[in-house]
Design brief:
The chain is of the alpha/beta class and 994 residues long. The chain has a 31-stranded parallel sheet that branches. A 16-stranded parallel sheet has the order 4-7-10-13-16-19-22-25-27-29-32-35-38-41-44-47. Helix 1 links the parallel strand 1 and strand 2. Helix 25 packs across helix 26.
């Protein structure tokens, strides 16, 4: 193996890894390189190689840092490569640290870092990648049609899934730790096969392990802690084997098997959790052996619609409500299991269930051991149900009523089954079924939770009014009186986002269940995508399925107005509305429907079908929170997370929300939460420089921590990093040519500075409209200037982040109805707090002539988003000068939103030559006078081509010159000539000729 040394300082060493890779191999010597990199930081790294080599940090792990900022990867490999002890970082908003499209790579004791919401290590197309004793930060790891091993590694702080395995990937994960994933820690889908052994997962925002879409996972001896959603999820016809898995502190379910998922679990332990220990439903199946479920807040185990769930051995202990809940449609067999110490019942079997308990022990439950529906097929063979708070109750008409009544407090108990109604009996006032709650609203938990919500006085009053009407109607029935006029329970929740509509809907469902109006009170939350299909006939099916899930509870349809919006092509939103109206009529006593959205849009929605207005006769308006209420919300977030808001900080918060425009699109509670999270981040940065901060300092949020108090919103140019401003301006000034462009950018910065000074003087100072048109041919620096502009605005405090998200037509325009708006919205969301750069924007307004085209929909969506978030994102649209004129005419609102057009002229010949020389200098090549003269001659001769391509064509010329130089020097070396460093780094006129 040929050893080559890379060093920043050592004589005769290569200066970069790329130089060492390019070095020719001796014709009769070793054909593989071992590149030894001396300690140091190597900025500007970015290379790709198909060679086989070993790359080693000779000073040991962490002594060599390869830094790059490329939209592709710092290292891109397709050969057989070993990486040892390196730190590889990519600072681009889109790039990876390591990409392996088809290679075979082993990384040992390396660290890979990329920007949040990027993929740090990206493996696909048959690649085999092994990570051993590595750390991956911020960015994710992706295996897509690839294979590999992750062993003794740490993956942390990823903004999305930390490890994603798709498209048939085969991956083994051993003895590794996953922390603080922004979505799920490990995701397996699209037929991937995964083995997870001796791993620890802590604090993912969603699932710890999510197995979906026909994937097959084996999980052994692994700990899953404090998942933000359910910890282990198996769904979408996936299969999982889990053995000796320990789950603690799940925010929702410890284990959730759904939508055709299949789980075999042995010795799973679930301790604590905010909902259910093990939940199986929606055609999922589970085989559980010797599992232990303790101390869950709601139910220990809940079995829904399934035909093959079996439980053998183990214990279900200390559930807050039910030990084992068997829901309609479930078939389950439980053998030798202990179910004890539940807060209510040990076992509850609902209607249309088939339950067999063999040799089970049901004991110590606070109320009854077993409660079953009259329609349940329940058998208990052997075992015992004793020492519970009351006798078993079997054959009851509605177990949900029994549970609700028992949970509400002591009630008269009817031990005999409720007889079936006699069809021949005369109509009379309906007696109130035994066990139905009758506590006044003020004594119910849902009422206390509603009262505890900040603000919403008018909303609370409306909900209490409905509760009182329902309570009195029930009492009239008990007295043998007619219940009075029918109470409309379907409602419209109208108002801006972030005002608690979803939370109130959940409480409303709980209230109706507590009052006996609904059986379950669950809230099924859906949006347009859950109801509307792109296929003919699919919408009615999807809508019915969602409605069916909501039976006995509440169907909450958020942004309901999107169903009635007209879009280009075939759209099935109206079909969803029509189906919903019919279902509400056919099942008017089984489901309560709440539709929510902006006030004006919801008025239009109610006109979409003649039956809508009559079914939604009650509208509750959710108003914007006041500045003081928003400050209260932030203080509530702080108290929950162990922080305190200083009095002067609260004053600053109230002053801020008083100054911002709180229109129909204002985020309210979401904006308050985002403001708090940003303040916590700023406080952490401030305290990180202190050696030993006090407990007081660690908990106190100061006004200085509100530097991003406007969330992502623009301000008036308060320079928070003057040195960075000067550094970025220096890079802008150093760009070749573009004198007029630079002047216009400086003028925009001067406007921002003037606005800041006027504001300080107490004068009116509207925010400067920062959206720009960059017009001109390609290769004239538009993208580079956009990136610098984003950095400048961030350094000035105008933007929270300053990132530049680059997008083209393909990133914004979808393939079917409804896809474009969602796709454009996703791209825009990534740009919030920064710059959205739309290249060749004019292609959105061009007619494609090939059937449906959604470019216009992308423009219309973009215009609305620019208005809704006008202080949060700077949009730069770029393209040819003439075509951009047509683009601005595509929507009446475009021209007014882009207040400035900056024209990028083609480079002059001398400027193109300077660009070539700069590229050469950056790559350690020289351009002597005679070569420069030949270069100028070439550029003048091909002037038309370079006027169209500019720097892009110069880049092609430079790469061709590098190839020609390598070819020429290679011939000399083959002839036995020993080449000097000057010859290896000097372009000749011959190299320009190709």
């Amino acid at each position: 193996m040929l050893k080559l040394v890379v060093s920043r300082t050592a004589p005769r060493a290569y200066r970069t890894v790329l130089d060492a890779l390019r070095a020719p191999l001796p014709p009769y010597g070793p054909q593989t390189k071992h590149i030894l990199v001396e300690p140091g930081q190597y900025p500007g790294t970015g290379f790709q190689s198909s060679s086989d080599f070993v790359l080693t940090a000779v000073g040991g792990p962490g002594t060599v840092t390869l830094d790059g900022s490329t939209d592709d990867a710092v290292i891109r490999l397709t050969g057989s490569v070993t990486l040892q002890g390196l730190v590889v970082r990519n600072w681009s908003a889109q790039g990876s640290a390591l990409r392996v499209p088809g290679g075979n790579v082993l990384a040992e004791q390396c660290e890979f870092v990329s920007r949040p919401r990027t993929v740090a290590v990206n493996c696909w197309d048959g690649a085999t990648v092994a990570l051993r004793s590595c750390v991956v930060r911020d960015g994710a790891v992706l295996y897509h049609g690839a294979s590999g091993v992750i062993e003794d590694c740490v993956l942390r702080d990823c903004a999305e899934n930390a490890l994603t395995m798709t498209l048939g990937s085969t991956v083994t994960v051993r003895a590794s730790r996953f922390a603080d994933a922004g979505l799920s820690a490990l995701f397996a889908g699209e037929g991937a096969r995964v083995e997870i052994e001796r791993c620890t997962v802590t604090d993912p925002a969603n699932a710890a392990v999510l197995v979906a879409d026909r994937a097959d996972a084996t999980i052994r001896d692994t700990t899953l802690e404090r998942s933000g959603e359910s910890s282990l999820v198996v769904r979408d016809n996936a299969t999982a084997l889990a053995e000796d898995v320990r789950i603690t502190g799940a925010t929702k379910d410890g284990v959730w098997v759904t939508e055709g998922g299949r789980l075999t679990g042995r010795r799973i332990t679930v301790h604590g959790g905010e909902r259910i220990g093990v939940s199986v439903g929606e055609r999922g199946t589970a085989t559980l052996e010797d599992c232990e479920i303790r101390g869950t807040r709601d139910n220990g185990m809940a079995i829904g619609e399934t035909r093959g769930t079996t439980v053998t051995g183990g214990i279900i202990s200390g559930a807050g409500i039910l030990g084992l809940r068997v829901m309609p449609g479930a078939r389950v067999m439980v053998t030798g299991t202990t179910i004890c110490d539940s807060g209510l019942f040990g076992v509850e079997a609902d209607r249309d269930t088939d339950v067999l308990l063999r040799d089970c022990t049901i004991t110590g439950n606070a109320d009854r051991g077993v409660v079953t529906s009259r329609d349940a097929r329940f058998r208990m063979q052997g075992g015992s149900s004793e020492h519970n708070g009351g006798p078993d109750l079997t054959g009851f008409e509605d177990v949900a009523q029994v549970r609700t009544a028992t949970a509400a407090g002591p009630q008269p108990v009817v031990h005999e089954p409720v007889p079936a109604p006699d069809p021949s009996a005369k109509t009379q006032a309906t007696p109130r079924p035994a066990g139905r709650a009758e506590a006044a609203p003020s004594g119910d938990p849902w009422f206390a939770e509603l009262e505890a919500m900040i603000g919403l006085a008018a909303v609370k009053q409306q909900i209490k009014k409905i509760a009182n009407l329902q309570k009195i109607a029930e009492r009239r029935r008990e007295a043998g009186l007619p219940p009075g006029p029918a109470i409309s329970r379907h409602m419209v929740f109208a108002g801006p986002p972030g005002t608690g509509k979803t939370t109130v809907a959940r409480l409303y469902g709980t209230m109706l269940a507590a009052l006996g109006v609904l059986d379950g009170g669950q809230v099924v939350e859906v949006s347009r995508s859950d109801l509307v299909s792109e296929n003919v006939g699919g919408t009615a099916i999807q809508t019915r399925e969602a409605f069916e899930r909501a039976k006995g509870g509440v169907l909450f349809l958020d942004e309901a107005y999107t169903l009635s919006r007209k879009s280009s092509g075939t759209d099935f939103g109206q079909e969803a509305i029509d189906t919903l109206v019919k279902l509400m009529e056919d099942h008017r006593d089984e489901v309560v429907v709440i539709v929510a959205g902006y006030t004006a849009e919801m008025r239009a929605f109610l006109t979409a079908n003649p039956g809508l207005k009559s079914r939604f006769s009650r509208t509750i308006d959710f108003e914007n929170y006041s500045p003081a209420e928003l400050a209260d919300i932030i203080e509530a977030h702080a108290e929950r997370d162990g922080y305190r808001i200083a009095p002067e900080t609260r004053e600053a918060i109230v002053a801020h929300f008083t100054s911002v425009r709180r229109d129909a699109d204002f985020g309210n509670g979401r904006e308050a939460r985002r403001m708090f999270e940003a303040a916590v981040e700023r406080q952490a940065q401030r305290l990180a420089e202190e050696d030993d901060p006090s407990v007081e300092s660690l908990t106190l949020i100061l006004p200085d921590d509100l530097d991003v108090a406007a969330g992502l919103a623009a301000r008036f140019g308060e320079a928070r990093d003057p040195e960075q401003v000067e550094a970025v301006l220096g890079r802008l000034t150093a760009m070749i040519g573009l004198a007029e462009v630079k002047a216009q950018i400086r003028d925009l910065l001067a406007l921002l500075e003037s606005a800041r000074r006027r504001r300080e003087a107490g004068l009116e100072a509207d925010p400067v409209t920062g959206h720009l048109i960059f017009a001109g041919p390609p290769g004239t620096g538009k993208t580079t200037v956009a990136r610098l502009y984003g950095e400048l605005l961030a350094a000035l405090g105008v933007l929270a982040g300053g990132q530049v998200v680059e997008a083209a037509r393909g990133d914004l325009v979808g393939q079917y109805v409804g896809h474009t708006a969602a796709q454009t919205g996703e791209v825009f969301e990534r740009a919030r707090g920064g710059v959205l750069f739309v290249d060749e924007a004019y292609t959105l307004s061009r007619e494609t002539g090939g059937g449906h085209d959604f470019g216009q929909e992308a423009i219309d969506t973009l215009v609305k988003l620019m208005e809704d978030h006008r202080d949060e994102v700077i949009v730069i649209a770029a393209g040819y000068t003439d075509e951009m004129t047509g683009f601005l005419a595509a929507n009446p609102g475009l021209a007014s939103r882009f207040a400035h057009t900056i024209t990028f002229p083609s480079y002059q010949v001398d400027e193109l030559a300077e660009i070539f020389a700069a590229k050469a200098g950056a790559a350690d090549y020289r351009v002597p006078d005679e070569t420069r003269a030949a270069l100028l001659t070439h550029l003048r001769a091909e002037r038309a081509r370079y006027q169209q391509g500019n720097a892009r064509e110069v880049d092609k010329l430079f790469r061709a010159a590098v190839t020609a130089h390598a070819r020429r020097t290679g011939r000399l070396a083959d002839g036995g000539r020993r080449l000097s460093a000057e010859e290896l780094s000097t372009f000749t006129p011959e190299d320009l000729a190709g």
